From TrEMBL:
Similarity comment text for this entry: Belongs to the ABC-4 integral membrane protein family.
Locations listed in the record: Cell membrane
Keyword presence, Nucleotide-binding: no
Source species: Amycolatopsis oliviviridis
Segments forming domain ABC3 transporter permease C-terminal: 265-385, 720-832
Record-linked PROSITE patterns: PROKAR_LIPOPROTEIN (PS51257)
Name by which UniProt lists this protein: ABC transporter permease
Amino acid sequence: MLRLAFRTLRLRKGGFIGTFIAVFFGALIVASCGGLMETGIRANAEPQRLAAAPIVVTGGQTFALPKEDPATLDADDKRKFEDARLPERVRLDTGLVSRLRSVPGVSDVVGEVSFPLATGGQPAFGHAWDSAALTPYALVAGTAPGAGEIVVESKSGLKPGDRVEIAAHGKSEAFRVAGVAGAPRPITQAAVFFSAADAARLSGYPGKADAIGVFTKPGADVEAVQAKVAEVATGANVLSGIDRGVAEFPEADSSGTNLIVIAGVAGGLSVMVAMFVVASTLSLSTQQRSRELALMRAIGTTPRQLRRMVLGEALAVGLLATALAAVLGPFLGEWLFGQLVENGVAPAVLRFYQGWLPAVVGAGAAMLAVFIAAFVAGRRAGKIRPTEALAEAAVTRRWLTPTRFVVAALCFGGGTALGIVTVAVMTGPIAASTAGPAVILWALGVAMITPGAAKMMTAILQWPMRLLGGIDARLAVLNTRAGIVRAAGAVTPIMLAVGIATANIYLQTTQQELANQAFTEDVRADAVIGSAAGGLSPDLVQRIQAVPGVAGASEYVTSSVFLEAPYDSSDEGRPAIGLTASGAGATIDTKVTQGDLKALTGRTIALPDVYAKDFARGVGDTVSLRLGDGTPVDVEVVAVTSQRRGFESLLLPADLLAPHTTAGLAPQMLVRATPDVEPAALTERLREATAGLPVSVGDRGALIAAHDKDQAVGAWVNYLLVGMIIAYTVISVANTLVMATVRRRREFGLQRLTGSTRAQVLRMAGFEGGLVALIGIVLGTVVSAGAIVPFCLVAADSLLPMGSPLIYLTIIGLAAALALVATLVPAWAATRGPAVDAATSGSD
């Protein structure tokens, strides 16, 4: 039977091509997402400035987060803890440098200090000159820097003796160029070298190092030395090989985690869609040759032989498709990675990987879909008794099997349960974490009962269609009802495309709009001062508050902190905002229900009321935090605030939070105007007051635009991934409809012989395509509503999502246009030539 299966493929080009397309694109998307996941797991970036040191030591960026209340835990039981990633750079004590020099096999140890600066308006990073050996940089002119001097790169165009204005750590200072140095390899980040004392002063972290480079003695075993270094540098990360790149580019590590999540969500969703698309395509292909299969059963072919033939055909097509997808997958994966880099989601220094494993996973997922779909199709064909086979082949009516019923019931039950959880338990934008999976469950459930739903909707829509289209529409309705299982094969991918696109896009637009509303409601600033060199000087607040027309000014710092006591099992890092107490009340619009924000000084905190209630903490109580760089601190509650649900932030003094961020200083300052001063006038006054300082002054619009840009990055990722899946389902819609229409050439020929004109046949086909599109659109809308409505009730207190209605109109317009084109074009091709030739031809 397998030999027969291979022979029949030559005569079934339509079904072969349709199945090939469905399997190929499914495997291609999964394989490309696998490449993104492998890149995220490896999170490798080639070291540049630290390339000369075989071993690099950095601060540990994780800490042990308890899974249970620490009061009941044994600290030595590692199973009760998990690693939580700290959002800010953890620096090392420079005292570690001298201790590492005594490690056997170590020849030299060099500490690395790195801080952002601006020179001539161009961004760069400052370093101590002794760390030049880590690259290594070598002088090509001049001498090493002394106090008040710098060494610049040869590509800077400067020469020894030049005077340069350097903006760093919130201040500007003039330095003399002492020398010019060159590196043996391209360096992404421009470097400026200072004396050790100047570098420590300008970095803002004296006695600290961002990384430590360890050089080994000639002939020493690097791995052995690395192990000994790890024993001395307890709690630090000791890196070698390509892993050293993470020490230089810490964003590569965090971006790797993001890539894993992106690839996992997109790949998983693609697998689910591919399962249904491939199953739908194979089911349609099997139905189209049901007469052939019925005749084979009637002449004595056993059910087992029939199943083997159908399965063999499908697997042969699947193997060809997955083999081609495995070859092209890396190209799509690299293109997707390039798009993520271009839009700021992943750093350019991250190395893209696409090994053999993603190709195997993509091929395996596609072949599994083929096997399941072919097994179900072959099993159904083999179960029909020979005496019933020919009658069944004429018009396929049976569709509701026990398996379909059970799967549909489970999916609808799961979708309903997620909807209840969304409404009853979730708050704010986190409700999307349950609303998203609900889309898939509703889509799977509807896909299981699509024939029945399509039949019911056809019965409802037949009257308006007959009224609008006359005899042609009536024939279209009769044809659709007679071939309802065939029509359902085309409805399913339309439903998937409309449902998934509508739900995911409107979930994203609603989240984005809610975030923007929360930000604009909370921030009352009329102007914003930004840093051009790594942060604002802490004494700038007093200077700005003295400007006429300023009602209040506050530093604005953002980070994430962990709540250690009281214990909260759901804590994965909470957003925190650092403010200056004297200007906090004027620049933010947070309602204070207890206490006073003016008391937000020293080691204090303002808790959102929902946290205060959950943790039974009020004014005067103490909570324990772990700041972004891992520093533990106990703070006193001095205020309780009422904030928008789902967008709550802990409020801390700026001078407490800022030193524990990577920059070490506040990146922005919010300024509020007095009632008698216009915002535009305030902006001009601030520009005059900050003239000569390394800062930029913008109005409220600039602040909101910057926030919108941050939100847009996350939105773009979602749109890209949804776009990939929608593109696949669109291809599947066209594929399915073309297959279904081309196979009807003989039917169209007979219809023309009985008196219909070619134009009437095409109008009938157009009404059929429109009816299929309408059914798919309605079902897809129902699927999306199952996720959107619960989410919007919780997050926006509305039944409708936030976002332009044009999004939905565009989605359904594209679905309808695609269905009509994919029906009419092949129908036009199938009705060319004499009707008698079409009526007497085969169906392929």
